[in-house]
């Protein structure tokens, strides 16, 4: 069964505790938390104080996705805020191996995100140090975008790399995931589905999460 990680970027921020309680009751596995700095991506979301409060509201995995420049400056703070998985962008890390060592040394699982234009083969030399690869299936920065079909080929290529190295790295798909296209991503080799609007704009979010989980 896939791991379902609803993105709280699409939650109701005036009723965040209510949405956290809903996710706790649901079959969601992880909370996906998108941090944007207005520099690496053209948008600003939320940061450490919000994550600290979300951490207090759930016992589920907090999957923190840093869409920021110089993530190494903040890794320790995100650990203290409650991150279980810390994902940095390949494109934001001049010394990616060092970033991964830092995240691991702080006791978090390591994640690397790739923008749509970044080929997966660039991770070949560090794949053994990565617990999760987040393939952006939209251009990062905003929710509600359309899934980029080329992502399916990237999933297949990455899955082959993981299996050839006999690794257990998860493949996470982030952006434009719907009930209509989720199965095709799983069939290609994805393990984790990030869903924002699909969950939080649904008439019945708990049922939508259950439907994704059942794929």
Please report which band the strand proportion falls in: under 5%, 5-15%, 15-25%, 25-35%, 35-45% or over 45%: 15-25%
The CATH homologous superfamily is named: Aldolase class I
CATH topology: TIM Barrel
Number of helices: 8
Q: For this structure, what is the CATH class?
A: Alpha Beta
Question: Within the largest sheet, what's the order of strands?
Answer: 1-8-7-6-5-4-3-2
Helix percent band: 25-40%
* Whole-number mean pLDDT: 97
Number of domains: 1
* Residue runs with pLDDT of under 50 for 5 or more positions: none
**CATH architecture designation:** Alpha-Beta Barrel
Give the beta-strand count.
Answer: 8
Rg computed from alpha carbons, rounded to a whole number of angstroms: 16 Å
Structural commentary:
This protein is of the alpha/beta class and 215 residues long. It has one domain (3-213): Aldolase class I (TIM Barrel), CATH 3.20.20. The chain has helices at residues 16-25, 48-56, 75-81, 96-105, 151-164, 182-188, 197-200, 205-213, and strands spanning 3-6, 30-36, 61-67, 85-89, 109-114, 132-136, 170-174, 192-195. It has an eight-stranded parallel beta sheet. Helix 2 (48-56) packs parallel to helix 3. The longest helix has 14 residues, at 151-164. The protein is globular, with a radius of gyration of 16 Å. A divalent metal cation binds at residues 32, 34, 65, 174. One of its GO terms (molecular function) is metal ion binding. Its cofactor is Fe(2+); Co(2+); Mn(2+); a divalent metal cation.
């Amino acid at each position: 069964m896939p791991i379902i990680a609803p993105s709280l970027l699409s939650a109701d921020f005036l009723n965040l505790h209510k949405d956290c309680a809903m996710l706790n009751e649901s079959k969601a596995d992880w909370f996906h938390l998108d941090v944007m700095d207005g520099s690496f991506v053209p948008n600003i979301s939320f940061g450490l104080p919000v994550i600290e409060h979300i951490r207090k509201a759930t016992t589920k995995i907090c999957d923190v996705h840093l869409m920021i420049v110089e993530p190494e400056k903040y890794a320790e703070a995100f650990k203290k805020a409650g991150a279980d998985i810390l994902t940095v962008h390949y494109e934001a890390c001049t010394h990616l191996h060092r970033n991964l060592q830092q995240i691991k040394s702080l006791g978090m699982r390591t994640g690397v995100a790739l923008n749509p234009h970044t080929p997966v083969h660039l991770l070949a030399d560090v794949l053994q140090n990565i617990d999760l690869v987040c393939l952006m299936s939209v251009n990062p920065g905003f929710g509600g975008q359309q899934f980029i079909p080329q992502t399916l080929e990237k999933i297949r290529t990455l899955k082959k790399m993981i299996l050839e190295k006999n690794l257990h790295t998860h493949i996470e798909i982030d952006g434009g995931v719907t009930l209509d296209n989720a199965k095709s991503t799983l069939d290609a080799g994805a393990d984790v589905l990030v869903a924002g609007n699909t969950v939080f704009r649904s008439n019945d979010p708990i049922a939508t999460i259950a439907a994704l989980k059942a794929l």
